Amino acid sequence: MSAGIRKVGSYRRARATLEPYWFMAPAAIMLATVYLGPMIYAVMTSTTHWVLTEPGSENIRAGLENYKDVLGAPSFWQAVKITLLYTLTSVTLSLTLGTLLALLLDNELHFASFFRSIMLIPMVITPAVIAIFWKLLYEQEQGVLNSLLVAMGFAKVAWLGLDHAFFAMVIMDSWQNTPFFMLVILAGLQSVDSNLMDAARVDGANVFQRFRYVVLPHLVPYMLIAAAFRGIATMNDFDKIWLLTQGGPGEATTTITVYTYKIAFSSFDMGRTTAIALIFVVIVLVTSAPLLRHLFRTARRPA
Amino acid sequence: MTFTLSHSTKRLLLSLLCLCLGIIYLFPYAWMVLTGFRSAVDTLSLRFIFEPTLEGFRSVLGDSIFRAYMLNSIIVSTLTTVVVLTVAAPAAFALGHLPIRGTGFLLFVLVVRMVPGIAILIPIYLVASRLGVLDTHGVLIVLYATFNLPFAIWLLRGFFCDVPGEIREAAIIDGCSELQVFLKIMLPLTSSGIVATGVFVFIAAWNEFLFALALTNSFASTAPLAMVAFRSEYGVQWPSIGAAAFIISTPVVLFAVVMQRFLVRGLTMGSVKG
């Protein structure tokens, strides 16, 4: 009899401990199906010579040949280089501008909330649309930027030409990202310990010393996390680049995402494409590992 | 203190600087909107003063393809939002309140969030074409919903954590099941967080481009793809392009301005405590 009671009790307990998982089951199933499934399929595909336009080619085994081909191709490394340069310059530029704007906004200003509303727009606006209006500004013959240059007595610049397309892309991305840095750093500024600031003032530190020795050390973690977040987003950027330059002229703005897309839908070589994509996953996950660790730690702490 | 600006003068000067910077910052967007109201003749002229015309808007709204794309965007984004909230809210509640070790799941959610879209695009394309679901609304909704789950779960978990655990315990003692606690107590208490999350998901789904480009052909194509279509179809018809870009971006811009207070928390999530 006591055994029976224990059985019922443990059944109840099992039900109670299982119940929470029912709440998570739909999310877990969706995530596993859409992410893990395709990832496994990609790994399998990457070991074949499957070309979509050649029926039957999905059964040709390739082993690791696709990976060897990709890693041996200069065009791949060129794309990696452009991706990293693009990410680095864009994040540095928007971090700097964002910090300056946050320092300005940290004062009590009259139009602060109006300004903040405006700065939200670049963060939410459709990237495909962003690319279009930057294309309009960069237009060579009569675009605004060149018209201004001519009005000021300078020569026209081929903004989307070989020499400048990379920077045109960086400026466009920084325009979109600066508000994000501004918001994060503003939150950082507003949590600076005011006692510490007062103490520094009493000790005779001027405004620059106070920034250098009190404010900046406090801001660094905010800057790092924000940079990691935006860095990953910029590495994955596709829409804006595709619509502004399609990776051109030549390969000047061909990042890994654009490179993968071009290869996929021009050669239809699925083995090779999935190999590139998987190498890119590794690059992104390795780069984002410190951020993941940080997020995981803060999340585990009871909120 | 021989020569210093008075506090209020300094404040005024900085405020004016701020206002100027805001206007400069908005210029690229504002210029495109203005272009939408120009006539084809003086499209690219530098003049700010011109006779506005609705030619561009008329030609875009008269285009049945553009209208279809807009309708597709509304359908796909709305249904995506509904699916995400339905699936993410219970998961977020469980992670925030129920006695489980959810760390493994949280880590999984985090890692998944970092996986680049392009990496799963090709296998998903292949599977979708085998299943015969290319160019359907359904495939976009399922994909967009899944892509937004990690973010939604994280954001919602924060809102659920704001509700004190004692409320749930009291309800359990009064005989509520966990499901009842979730439906009758937690959802009403977190409604503003749920709305904010919904807005985020809607914006993300509305803006998505890569998967829409690769997986749809025309039947289920969404509004951002009109930017590609216009480029080839209209050549350099900037007024039409400006008008289309304005129409496409208006819903998200309106959300941003109206929901400012809610959005800041989500936009900076993970980077700022709280």
From TrEMBL, chain A:
Protein location: Cell membrane
InterPro entries, alphabetized: ABC_transporter_permease, MetI-like, MetI-like_sf
Domain ABC transmembrane type-1: 80-291
Domain of life: Bacteria
GO biological process: one example: transmembrane transport
UniProt family annotation: Belongs to the binding-protein-dependent transport system permease family.
Organism: Bosea lathyri
Cellular component GO terms held in the UniProt record: plasma membrane
UniProt membrane topology term: Multi-pass membrane protein
Major localisation: membrane
Parts of the chain that traverse the membrane: 21-44, 84-105, 117-137, 143-162, 211-229, 273-292
This protein's name: Carbohydrate ABC transporter membrane protein 1, CUT1 family
Keywords for this protein: Cell membrane, Membrane, Transmembrane, Transmembrane helix, Transport
Classification via SUPFAM superfamilies: MetI-like (SSF161098)
UniProtKB/TrEMBL annotation, chain B:
Topology relative to the membrane: Multi-pass membrane protein
Keyword Disulfide bond among record annotations: no
Subcellular location: Cell membrane
Domain ABC transmembrane type-1 residues, every copy: 70-259
GO cellular component, one term: plasma membrane
BP GO terms, sorted: transmembrane transport
Pfam families: BPD_transp_1 (PF00528)
Cited Gene3D superfamilies: MetI-like
Residues annotated as transmembrane: 12-31, 69-93, 105-126, 138-160, 242-263
Keyword annotations from UniProtKB, A to Z: Cell membrane, Membrane, Sugar transport, Transmembrane, Transmembrane helix, Transport
Free-text function comment from the UniProt entry: Part of the ABC transporter complex MalEFGK involved in maltose/maltodextrin import. Probably responsible for the translocation of the substrate across the membrane.
Family: Belongs to the binding-protein-dependent transport system permease family. MalFG subfamily.
Protein name, UniProt field: Maltose/maltodextrin transport system permease protein MalG
Classification lineage: Bacteria, Pseudomonadati, Pseudomonadota, Alphaproteobacteria, Hyphomicrobiales
